[in-house]
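Incident review: delayed structure delivery

Summary: a single-chain prediction request sat in the queue longer than the usual turnaround. Root cause was a stuck worker, restarted by the on-call engineer. No data loss occurred. The affected request and its eventual output are reproduced below so the record is complete for anyone auditing the incident later.

Affected input:
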Amino acid sequence: MSSFKDLIVYKKAFALSMEIFEVSKGFPKEEKYSLTDQVRRSSRSVCANIGEAYRKRRYPAHFISKLTDSDAENSETQVWIDFAFACKYIDENTSISFTQRSEEVGRLINHMIANPEKYL
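Output delivered after worker restart:
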């Protein structure tokens, strides 16, 4: 594998982030500097940290550290999804879909954390 962009986890996280971006365009203007920016930032950070981790894979501790950052951003994204649903900015089906996809990304990240030798 020559690029982090080839990783299934990156592809899934990127697709989710882009869908969150599209849906968040419909959030109210008063949420622009809070919920909208936060959910976009955290979902994008999942991808960015995967990219950084992949470039640090020669150093297992650094690789794992960046992956744990990615996992934390993924969890934060789930919190913002919960807020978006509670505020009625997204419907239940969207909330469930986003959460399930985020959980899948989390499982893939945690597999990488538990098995770094497969990526080094």
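Verification: The chain has a mean pLDDT of 96.
Action items: add queue-age alerting; document worker restart procedure.
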